[in-house]
Fold each of these.
Amino acid sequence: MSKNWIYLVFFFLLGCIDPFPVEVPEGEQLLTVEGLIHSGPGPHIIQLSRSATYGSDLQSLIRPVVGATVIVRSDDGEVTFLGEREGVRGAYFTPEGWRAQIGKAYTLYIETPEGTLYSSFPERVESVPEIQSLGIRTVVVPQPGGGPERSGVQIIADINDPADQNNFYFWRLGAANYILETRPDLYTTPAPERNPAPKDCCVVCYRTDIPNNRSLFIAVDDDFNGLSTRIPVGFVEDDGLRFVNKYRVDVNQYSISQDAFRFLRLVKQQAEISGSIFDPPPANIRGNMISLDNPDEVVLGYFMAAGEASKRIYVDQAELTFKQNRAIIPDDCRVVPNATIDPPFDWNPNE
Amino acid sequence: MMKKILFLIFLFSGFASLAQQNAEPPKRIVVGRDIGQLKGIRISGRIIDEITGEALVGATITVPELDLTRITDTNGFFELVLDRAEYNLTFRYVGYETIDYPITAVGDGRISIRMIQEDFQLDDVVIYGRDPEKNIRSTDMGAVTLSMNTMRELPPFFGEVDIVRSLATLPGVSQVGEASSGLNVRGGGVDQNLIQFGGAPIYNPSHMFGLFTAFNPDVVNDVTLYKAVVPARFGGRSSAILDIIPKAGSVDKWGVDLMAGTYTGKVSVNGPLIKDKVSILGGFRISYINWLLQTLTDPVLNNSNANFYDGNLVISAPISDNNEFMYSYYTSYDDFAFASDTTISWKNTAHSLQWKSKLSEKLSMEALGFYSGYNFGVFNRSGINDFQINSDILDLGGKLFVSYNFSPTNKVTFGGEYKQIEIQPGELIPGEQGEVLPRKVQNEFGREMAGHFQHEFELGEKLGFSYGLRYDFYQYLGARTVRQYAENQPISDGSAIGEINYADGEVIQSYDGLGPRASIRYSFNKSTSIKAGYNKMYQFIHLISNTATIAPFDLWKLSDNYLKPQIADQYSLGFYKNFKGNIFETSIEFYYKDLQNVVEYKDGANLIVRNHIETELVPAQGQAYGAELYIKKNLGRLTGWISYTYSRALRRVITPYEEENINDGEWYASNFDKPNDLTVIGNYKVSTNTSISATVAYSTGRPVTFPEAKFDYSGNSLAYFDNRNQDRMPDFFRIDFAANFKLKGSGKFFEGDWTFSVLNVLGRKNPYSIFFGDAPGLPPQSLRLALLGVPLPSLSYAIKF
């Protein structure tokens, strides 16, 4: 249960939240690990970076760690090397076709270019129930001061929680596509002329969307063990483009470990801190990585291993009970980044 | 000129006798029927307000010839036992004209004293409580009584007298921030204070999360805070006792008080149910913040609600000179929703029935029974998995207190206490459509018993002693399933090895302890003394919270197998000196306090609706010490005080397991450690009808944890925190101002009072907290939450019939 709804009315009547620079200690460049390997299709990614000083613009650049050796090792001795790819610094990918096996425990090993060795604690891949079905709910968020309301679609999953185990769930939105509609008939020549110059093509494209997984959706089955339940598993903001026609997104459900759940809960708690007087105090977010050379060295982040279940949902604009005003792009839809005239090969809204 | 007009009003409105009394020296009055009695002459009497007829509780009667002081009881009664002689009695009461009353005592008799408020006559204000020399003469240490009259002289908070905030102006007493409930007394947590109203414990003394105190000042007679040597009759909490005494209604005539302020309105009615026998006082206060919110166009505020009210009923029956009953009922209610489908509500209820009896000249007795309840609820109506969470605390108990006076300077008190506590820590109830499992944390049952004894005596004028002992006995009871943990491992879900079931009423765990109390006083002369004291206190109930203030959903938890009782040892030393006939009162006090088994939390503890909460807690040691300087001007056009405290409140967590230690087992500052704390309060009486007051408050900023580094995870910029409370917020500084205008209607029947106040005149944005956020559209940065960041005016109007 999140506490961020508890603001005081008086914040707005009398009080306020404003930026307040404070002198923070110069941050150490601690190795940070973010990664999830799972039983679904890959590639699975481990990201390595170095922490920086909080709040200071000059020193606050978080740098990726490149050139490290990254290995995942299972408890039956299988060793998998993860490789870097061009253009994505600090990300290490599992080989094509590799999947984690349910029931096995995996350990992450890292050797940095400086030669320091790091290891995770072993993480066991637990089985995960299927997502029975997906639905949506329109969410409208009023803005303080009476500005235009923000809105979007909350995705809700139906799951049958297995009764025989304590399940810890984590959801992420995967690949998304939507039908983009533009107005080439409103095209004007570039400034300063701005003369009407309508184009004949094209109104309808298919655009690939990169879902924002900043808000963490996690749950523990304490409240629904053995039951079928409905849980919010993701949120897609209505930007005036996405929900003009049809939107589709894949929802990935992961069974994570109890410690990983605790870690994500702390991340979520900090990410949602709102500045209410009942905010929890700062918590040390401990992960499952250690340095093999210096046990006192702090390593940030968490290496997770999980079972995966995935399901796809198509959202028709008519399902939304509140929509943002349609955003108008006065041009050929093909000029919009990540948009093409051809639907994805598996586009099938009627499935 | 004003004085003359007033004087005339007095003359014409039936105060001729009093005016006459002031004009010439008082005549000696012969009291009693003369049957030749020489000794043991009983003179009883009652002191009431000349105008309202209300009993004056705690008024002082002094007999200088015998160096004797008596105080009126809750119905204004007193009794003197004298030998046949002449005496020059004096009657004093805060804010009232002192009456000299020479008598010749010749036999048993009664006298009736009607006192008149000072501001009808004088330009001066008197703010000392009960007895001006009490601070010097009594052996008590660290007991402060604030009468309503004293509190009325402070700048009001949101237009009203606020009990908790008034106490926070005293040395050694502080609050974490501007809207926080509860008090931190000498380095103790908010849960280490026992707050009792009419003898019944109150668990959440605040409205709107602490912006308002949940006690209506119109129904309170006075408030006593024991912060050092707590008398043996009080116990159960390790830091301090806040004893709030409700006011009794008039047994003489009916009266009404009305007040309309900017945020709240209140009414109280009091009068005789049976004339001279039974009085009733009812009070009700309600906020209209909700109506204000509904008128706003901001959709966030418009979709929010904030309601609160509190109500009181006091029935007092002084059925005879020697016996009186008093029943007090108190309730407070809040609900709050901030632009969401989730409403939070909380409610206090307290009933108490007290019987005071004077069995003989020397022996008196008080018996009290109480029932107290606290409930909070969270209601979620979001449409998905609706739920509600409920939690309750029920206390039921009784106290007996006997006092025997060998002589006016040699007194023994003893008694006992019994209390049973039932806590429902949380029950999650699914809504109609909710696909949520109902969940209920096991109820807790406990029993606290105590026996106590105290002896106060004086050896001559110079030396006074008080010593006492309290024995606390506590049992944690079934029915309950208690989880067992593997030895030599930290208590966690992972180290659980089994469960033991206890039957209904079966004793699971017992704790007991002896709590000695002792103080000694040496008076150099009538205006100078030195005192030293020691006390030990036990606490069996703990507030499980990981916020800096009391949140309504914080849990109270009884001591069990894993959570041991908190123990506090306090040593105090003080010097007291009054100047200029008690016009100036000064003191300096030092204390050292040692705390054991204070509750601390593991990082990121999850405390809501949880069984096995022991897995989230670690025991801490506490250490607090300080020096408190207090200078008070009691009388004159300008009154007020300066209080300065230097103190530290530290915590340390050392466990057998390195990973559970906090800050590597070093001492660290608690959330409310504010080393320098200065309050200056002044009230200036401009004219008979107008006064202005101001409060200046300064303190060191409270501790805060700054991040060691920034890192990214799941697209969020996060702060990495390591050691707790290593940094500080900017210093706190605030000035409040108030002006009060009294309007006289038709003299004695009607009285009006306008109060205009401005909180935070400078508009300084004192941070309540500094936090580190990664809000969309902004770089991750440090942010400040300031609660009263602007000058906040309020206006209130009170009338009295």
Amino acid sequence: MIEETTNQAPTSDKLGQLLPTRRFGRSKERVTQLGVGGYHVGQAQDERTAQEIIETAIVEGIRFFDTAPSYQNGRSEYRYGKFLIPKYRDDVFLITKTKARTAAEATAEIESSLTRMKTDRLDAIMMHAMSEAGDPEERIDAGVYDAFIKAKESGKVRYIGFSGHLSTKTNLRTLELLGNQVDVSLMPVNVVDPSDSDSFVQNVLPKLNASGVAPLAMKTAAFGNFFEKPVKVAGHPEAPIIPARITMTEAFQFVLAQPIACWVSGMDKPEFVIKNARIAREFNGLSHEEIARIISKVEAFRDNREVEGYRKWG
Amino acid sequence: MAVSALPALGNSSAAQRTGIPSRTVGNRKGTIPAIGIDGLACAKGDMDRSRTLIASALENGFTFFDSSTSHIEGRSERRMGEILGTHRRDSIFLQSRCLARTKRVAHTELNLSLARLRTDYLDSYLIDSEIPGRTDEQLEYPNLDIFEAMIEARKAGKTRIIGIRAPMNTKHLQQMLELYGSEVDVVMVPYKLPDDNEALRKARRIGAGVILDVNKDAQKAWLKGPASKSPLPDYATSWVIPVSNPKEIAKLAGLARSLPQPSQ
């Protein structure tokens, strides 16, 4: 846990230099502004690569690790249990999620996640992937959030929240229903999003900030599509957004320029950790003009479900 | 699904009531209905579709429902829990399985299955002997001592029978069978696994029941073939089949009722 002391943000811990940290919502705690997305740790080609990703992240000063039980049937959580937790549990912020639809299921799934990761406590738990209208009501009415509160009271988790990548309305509705009981929320933040007719950055992020919720940024390269997917848009050559339209540094500096607590990045090779950590370490803010300039370079890709493929996921 | 005591498992009156035969498994720890309904097939599409399929299965006498913690990230178990939760627990045969790697996780995953299925016991709980990558080619195998979690769960009354599910590669099934022998009540193997497969023969030698896994082609062939022809080899206890609509379910039920009641 990185705590503020007289408003001074620590720059190192016992493991070494930290990446720059940011305030975690309304708490007095700070998190590194770059975090490891667990899906890609589970997806890394073998156990050794997964271990290298985790070790590299620690060396680079990252202390924030996200995961979920549904990633690769638990492989992501098992790999944290094998390579992250035994050495670094006290030094990192650990967050997982659950797709539980009832209180009993949420309680049971938290236990399963703890067991897979070989720890007795999470830093945060989120309702995973809030989807369509009615989903927040259904989960909350069935006691999922109550189960989170109980887990908090019993010391198994410190912060609670939700994630959602499909609909800004659903994310806002969840926030409305739970109000300031929400500590943390994971949502898409990327350079195309502000141009979308239904933008998470424009519509959801300010509300999270106003409520003191710690916003976590995901899909910051649209689940890799910015790098890998050639998309045809009138007036542009059919090529991936990075590097055809913008650089990787521009894309991720845009993310860091938003009022988020942590940029959660999926990195399935150690070299990606090093590249991203460098961007986070060297980030020195962007002016409004620079942000507007980067957004305008990819505006033509707005509302494009081929680029923002996560908008289609069920 | 309130349960005051563990009922007798799938007794012969169930077979008389539904007309679908049941068969003895696992050194006579109980019986399993000869035909099970694939929970994954029931969980596809919207909730109304799931309700229709499961209601139709029940109306037609099917009582054995197979699921897994991994089916659509728990949706299959969740829907079964919601839909079957209004039925008498002892009128249903519930099987689920998990892809756990360690003994401790197998315990917590069983509790998760029970929570999703809204019950306090399963009729059958299986461990997968191989964990395929859902999104890539990576394969993993559980620690061999994982079966001890199954034995403990059976002892605690959380499941009536326990077993192992294997893919075409039965190497790890074979290892677990060598280690745990007659503690294994049932194995679930691919429908097209050769009769002379070594692990299958070992399972039969120790008296374990044999559940044949989902096979769409074999299901179609059964629907089209002569009613007198049983799709089950004589050693097979049960077969889990996919279903896609009520008409198909009714026809399968007719065929299932004509299955021979094997000698117990």
